[in-house]
Amino acid sequence: MSDSPPLRETRQKVSLSADAALDRLIHNADPDILSAVAGDSRLTEDLALALLERRDLPGEALEQLHRNSSVAKLRKVRLAVIVHPRTPRHISVPNIRHLYVFELMQIALTPSVAADIKRVAEETLLGRLATVSPGERFTLAKRSSGRVAAALLLDNEERIMQAALLNPQMTEMWIVKALKTGTGTEVLAPAVCRHTKWLHCIEVKAALLGNPHTPFAFVVQITAELPLHALKDVLRNARLTPHVKRYLVGMLQKRSS
Fold first, then answer.
1. Residue 40 lies in a domain
2. Within a domain: residue 176?
3. Which domain holds residue 135?
4. How far apart are CA 237 and CA 214, in angstroms?
5. Residue 109 burial by Cβ neighbours in a 10 Å radius (0-12, 13-18, 19+)
6. pLDDT tens track for 84-114
7. Nearest residue to 169 (alpha-carbon basis) of 130, 126, 111
């Protein structure tokens, strides 16, 4: 996209003016001046980041900053452009794929970032998990968003799975979903049984009864703790092993009588 005549004129004034100190102009209220500053080749990383701290930065200025070869490829600037609330989606979304793993994690965890941008960052991160080192996966399991940590509940390394269980963003919804996958839960199901926080949740207990890797001692414990309506739902909807199904039917009859 070429510059408009008013912007070209403003840029020339900014460039030629002896008073055109960029560190002052980044605080100017004129949108045309801000756009001219954003596209100025003299712009440094620090000045670009200071400019991007302005929440009222016009979209045209963000366009110019994106095209400014002096700063556009600097990682801090690129990240700040992506998370700016006024950055056009045709700029922010394609640039997400250039970010590092922990930059993607940062976007997903930043409250001020738009939901659709967070979603793209999470999907990009999930698509890379197979190529991420165990050390990075461990950090992601501990600190990432709930959606990313949920994927790591099925990691083949137990320490990573355990870290995901302790992630502050983890919710029972993600644990229930993981337990219902069936495959890859050989270590997860027993770990959830031993986790006092999650074993208090009725939905988690129900999912454990339907998981073939739940130790039978915990099946007995959970069956005694669940209310009758929850047991009936499990029998009606869950895929149970024959052994567990017979036990639940017997216990349901016993408790009902």
1. yes
2. no
3. 99-170
4. 17
5. middle
6. 999 999 999 999 999 999 999 999 999 989 9
7. 111
